[in-house]
Automatic annotation (TrEMBL):
Cofactors named for this entry: Mg(2+)
Enzyme class: transferase
All copies of domain Carbohydrate kinase PfkB, residue ranges: 134-301
Lineage: Bacteria, Pseudomonadati, Pseudomonadota, Gammaproteobacteria, Chromatiales
Protein name stated in the entry: Guanosine-inosine kinase
Function statement: Catalyzes the phosphorylation of guanosine and inosine to GMP and IMP, respectively.
Pfam families (UniProt xref): PfkB
Name of the encoding gene: gsk
Organism (species): Rheinheimera mesophila
Keyword Transferase: yes
Entry keyword set: ATP-binding, Kinase, Magnesium, Nucleotide-binding, Purine salvage, Transferase
């Protein structure tokens, strides 16, 4: 058989040269730049059903129904048998964020949580693995005998959405499966507030251990709030956790109001800076805000038009780079805002995961700063202990663009990174 192309005369594997090392998909703490996320592993199932189906199982239409595992399994099996399921998506706000980070950075991340020990074809665990980037290191997941969580969205002919939540074993993660050595060398760790409501469940203590390990190793901690109702129910506990452990907080305008009592995004972000060092606040069609601290000695004035709202001239120093408040001799609060990219998509296909995409962009910038500091510690980029590589304004651009990429697709997870060049973007995402 004749093969196309020219043959190389040089031996493919010359014995006189060192052997090439195969790529490692397992994180190596001393060599790699990575982030670590902890999540309640869950799969989102989309199904079309009739009103009679809901009545058969006693499911409240238009509501979020927490259902015990046996009943949820019966519902799921009938949906499978009747071909009513249109899509499976790997879910979980942190699972989405970690996956998106690995797609954007084209680099490793670590996911902590549980996974079914026995994975069958077509099972929730199978779909979770199929929809997660191969760059996400899942070697540290805890095996459990049961299923991971399932969130079933049932759509009736009138368009009404009804939710069935089956926790499965997703809250069974124990502190023993929190790898301290992996966390200590991470560029950042990311968690959500959801495990805080899992009272008397192992995952709550596992997350506290993770936060404590990160604080001891001085690794930046990023937290995403869950829902408005979660914040309302556990407001004091969340505030205590933020003040004790968290550096970066991500939330939407409804969660921000529930946390701080301020409906205005700027005022809510300003109040949240009493607890954390940086705040990402997504406000739907209004765009997103990024707020934080920098030191007065390195503040940089913007060349963009000055904006005023509840705070006057709030974006005056948005060309500054974020710092932790404790590292500032004279802390200055910095605010930046950006409208939706290109005015927002003409047709929004999916809002689920847009905030997770924006958060992944921020984590990418924090990790880029960590990598650059490890590689070139004497660079002028590190004359101050900055939290991120880029300015507030540049991070806003990046986060905004990633949110847009989520909004124009059906799934909450990116399937590929952003285009390297776009005519509508005059600058790179990172300062040079």
């Amino acid at each position: 058989m004749k093969f196309p192309g020219r043959r190389k005369l040089k031996h493919y594997f010359p014995v006189s040269q060192p052997k090439l090392t195969l790529p490692s998909y397992e994180v190596r703490p001393e060599l790699d730049t990575y982030i670590v996320g902890l999540d309640q592993t869950i799969v989102d199932v989309i199904a079309n059903v009739s009103d009679e189906f809901l009545q058969k199982y006693g499911i409240g239409k238009g509501l979020s129904n927490l259902v015990e595992h046996g009943k949820a399994d019966l519902i799921y099996q009938e949906l499978v048998g009747s071909n009513a399921i249109s899509d499976h998506f790997a879910g979980g706000t942190i699972g989405n964020t970690v996956h998106n980070y690995s797609v954007l950075a084209d680099d490793k991340s670590v996911l902590l949580g549980v996974m079914s020990s026995n994975i069958q074809l077509g099972s929730p665990a199978y779909h979770y693995l199929c929809h997660t980037s191969s760059k996400v290191d899942m070697n540290h997941l805890q095996g459990v005998p049961g299923d991971i969580g399932r969130g079933i969205t049932m759509i009736t002919p009138d368009g009404e959405r009804t939710f069935v939540i089956d926790p499965g074993d997703m809250d069974e993660l124990t502190p023993a499966y929190i790898p301290t050595d992996i966390i200590a060398k991470a560029a950042a760790i990311v968690v959500s507030a959801y495990p805080l409501r899992a009272t008397n469940q192992p995952i709550q203590q596992a997350m506290i251990k993770m936060l404590s390990d990160a604080k001891t190793a001085e690794v930046p901690v990023v937290m995403s709030l869950g829902t408005k109702h979660l914040v309302e129910e556990h407001r004091e506990l969340i505030q205590q956790t933020l003040a004790q452990y968290v550096n970066v907080l991500a939330m939407n305008e409804l969660e921000a109001e529930a946390l701080t009592g301020f409906a205005d995004p700027l005022l809510a972000a300003e109040a949240a800076l009493d607890y954390v060092d940086m705040v990402l606040l997504t406000a739907g069609p209004e765009g997103l805000y990024l707020c934080g601290y920098t030191d007065a000695s390195v503040k940089r004035e913007t060349t963009n038009p000055i904006k005023s709202g509840a705070l006057a001239d709030y974006n005056e120093f948005e060309f500054s780079r974020p710092m932790q408040k404790k590292d500032c001799q004279q802390p200055v609060k910095v605010y930046s805002h950006i409208d939706p990219y290109l005015g927002g998509p003409e047709r929004i296909k999916n809002t689920n995961g847009a905030g997770d995409g924006a958060l992944a962009a921020i984590l990418h910038d924090i990790a880029a700063n960590h990598f650059h500091r490890q590689t070139l510690p004497l660079s002028s980029k590190h004359e101050q202990p900055y939290l991120a590589y880029s300015s507030f304004a540049q991070i806003c651009k990046y986060a905004n663009r990633v949110s847009y990429a989520i909004l124009v697709q059906n799934a909450p997870r990116l399937s590929k990174g952003l285009p390297e060049k776009e005519d509508s973007l005059e600058e790179s995402y990172w300062d040079r």
